[in-house]
C-alpha cells in the first residue's frame, strides 16, 4: 500500500502519536505513568504499527537482558577483609562511635 | 456495526477516498478488536485482583528468601550481630554495591574500598536503623553517600551534582530523532523500521562474551547519573520510588535518565540479536 496514504490514515486513526513519539514515550508506558488517554492512543498505535510493536519488544528484551547481568565479582580478599572487620566490630564493647547513618 | 463505527470516525470524507483506505481499516480490524479486548481484560483482571487483595508479583529470588527471613526478621538478626546472616547479606549485596560504586569513582580498587566503608557504616548504624525505608534502600544510600565523598576526594572525579546533570541536559530531548524521518510526508516515521529480534532468551544471548562486553561497555560509557539509574532500576531491579530515594532525584528526572540509558543500550545490543535479515 502507498506509504503516504498509510501515514495519513494512521494520523487519522491514532490521534497525533507518531512513531517517533511512541519511541519517546516507551519508558513512560512501561512505567505505567501515561494518562489513560495517552495509554489508549499508545496501544492503538501499537495495534496498527508493526515497527513500533517490534520496538517495544526490543525495549522489553533489553531490560530483561540487563536484569540477567551477573553481579560484579567481588574478589575473595575483599570478602575475607569484610568478615574480619565484622568480627572486630562485634567484639568491641561500645558500638556507639562513628558517624550515625539515618534511614 | 463495526464498519459504521469507523465510517463515523473517518467522517464524511470516507466516500471520496480510494478503496485502499477502507481495505486498510478492514484488514486491521482484528488488531483493533484485540487491542480493545486486551485493555478491557487487563482492567477487569486488575480490578478483581484489587478486590481480592492480591498484587501481581513475579519477583526474583531475594536475600530474604535465601535466609528464610522477612524484613523485620532480617533487620533484627543484623542488629543482634548474627554472623551467618551478616555473611549472607554481605555476600548477596557486595556485587551490586560494587557495580554502583564503579559509577562514582574512577577505579575498581577505590570502588572496593567504598564497598568496605559502606559495610563499616552498616555495622555502626544498624542499631539506629528504624525501618523507615527498606534495608536495601538504606544500604544503597550509605553507599552513595560514601561514594560521593570519596569521588570528590579523588582528583579525577568532577562533582556529579553539576557536571553530570549539565552534560545530560546537553544531549537534548530528542535522542531518537536520527531514527525517524525529519520532514515531508512520512514525518515522524521510522527510517529503518525495527525488525523482530531473534527469539533467543537473554540468558543465552549473554553467554556470548562479545555481546556481554558490548553491553558492559555501553553501560560504562553512559553519563554517570544515567548509569546510576540504570544500574539500580534495570540491573538490580530496585523500584522507581526507591531509586528516587537513593539518588535523591525526582521521579520525572529519573525516568528521563532511564529512558536515555535504555535507548543507548538497546542500540548497542541490536547487532547481537538481530536475525540474518541485515
Ligand atoms: Zn509506529
Give the class of chain B from helix and strand content and strand pairing: mainly alpha
Largest interface: A-B, 68 and 86 residues
Tally of alpha and pi helices of chain A: 5
Assembly annotation: heterodimer
Mean pLDDT of chain A: 82
For the biggest sheet of chain B, the summary is: none
N-to-C CA distance of chain B: 43 Å
Hey, roughly how much beta strand do the residues of chain A contain? under 5%
Percent in helix of chain B: 55-70%
Structure, described:
The complex is a heterodimer of chains A (about 100) and B (about 280). Chain A is mostly helical. Chain A has one domain (about 5-90). Chain A is about 70% helix and about 0% strand. In chain A, helix 2 (about 20-30) runs parallel beside helix 4 and helix 3 (about 35-50) crosses helix 4 (about 50-65). The termini of chain A are far apart. The mean pLDDT of chain A is about 80. Chain B is an all-alpha fold and about 280 residues long. Helix content of chain B is about 65%, strand content about 0%. Chain B is built from 13 helices and no strands. Chain B has helices at about 1-10, 20-50, 65, 70-80, 85-100, 110-125, 135-155, 160-170, 200-205, 210-220, 225-235, 240-245, 250-275. Mean pLDDT of chain B is about 80; it is low at about 160-165. The chains are: A mainly alpha (about 100), B mainly alpha (about 280). The interface between A and B is large, with 68 and 86 residues. The complex binds zinc ion.
Amino acid at each position: 500500500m502507498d506509504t503516504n496514504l498509510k501515514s495519513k490514515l494512521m494520523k487519522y486513526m491514532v490521534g497525533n502519536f507518531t512513531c517517533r513519539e511512541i519511541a519517546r514515550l516507551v519508558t513512560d508506558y512501561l512505567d505505567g505513568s501515561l494518562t489513560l488517554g495517552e495509554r489508549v492512543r499508545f496501544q492503538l498505535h501499537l495495534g496498527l504499527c508493526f515497527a513500533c510493536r517490534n520496538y517495544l519488544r526490543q525495549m522489553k528484551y533489553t531490560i530483561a537482558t540487563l536484569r540477567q547481568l551477573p553481579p560484579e565479582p567481588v574478589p575473595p580478599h575483599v570478602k575475607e577483609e569484610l568478615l574480619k572487620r565484622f568480627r572486630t566490630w562485634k567484639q568491641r564493647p561500645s558500638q556507639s562511635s562513628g558517624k550515625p547513618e539515618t534511614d | 456495526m463495526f464498519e459504521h463505527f469507523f465510517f463515523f470516525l473517518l467522517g464524511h470524507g470516507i466516500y471520496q477516498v480510494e478503496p485502499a483506505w477502507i481495505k486498510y481499516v478492514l484488514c486491521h480490524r482484528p488488531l483493533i478488536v484485540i487491542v480493545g479486548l486486551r485493555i478491557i481484560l487487563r482492567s477487569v483482571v486488575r480490578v478483581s485482583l484489587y478486590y481480592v487483595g492480591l498484587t501481581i508479583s513475579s519477583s526474583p529470588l531475594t536475600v530474604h528468601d535465601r535466609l528464610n527471613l522477612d524484613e523485620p526478621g532480617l533487620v533484627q538478626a543484623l542488629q543482634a550481630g548474627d554472623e551467618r546472616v551478616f555473611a549472607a547479606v554481605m555476600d548477596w549485596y557486595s556485587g551490586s554495591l560494587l557495580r554502583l560504586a564503579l559509577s562514582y569513582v574512577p577505579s575498581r580498587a577505590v570502588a572496593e574500598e567504598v564497598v568496605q566503608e559502606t559495610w563499616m557504616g552498616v555495622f555502626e548504624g544498624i542499631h539506629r536503623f528504624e525501618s523507615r525505608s527498606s534495608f536495601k534502600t538504606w544500604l544503597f544510600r550509605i553507599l552513595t553517600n560514601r561514594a560521593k565523598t570519596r569521588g570528590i576526594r579523588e582528583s579525577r572525579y568532577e562533582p556529579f551534582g553539576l557536571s553530570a546533570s549539565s552534560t545530560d541536559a546537553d544531549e537534548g530531548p530528542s535522542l531518537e530523532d536520527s531514527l525517524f524521518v525529519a520532514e515531508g510526508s512520512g514525518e515522524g516515521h521510522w527510517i529503518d523500521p525495527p525488525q523482530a529480534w531473534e527469539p533467543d532468551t537473554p540468558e543465552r544471548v549473554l553467554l556470548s562474551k562479545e555481546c556481554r562486553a558490548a553491553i558492559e561497555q555501553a553501560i560504562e560509557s553512559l553519563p554517570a547519573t544515567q548509569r546510576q539509574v540504570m544500574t539500580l532500576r534495570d540491573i538490580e531491579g530496585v523500584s522507581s520510588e526507591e531509586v528516587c530515594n537513593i539518588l535523591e532525584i525526582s521521579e520525572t528526572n529519573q525516568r528521563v535518565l532511564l529512558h536515555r540509558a535504555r535507548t543507548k543500550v538497546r542500540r548497542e545490543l541490536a547487532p547481537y540479536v538481530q536475525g540474518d535479515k541485515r
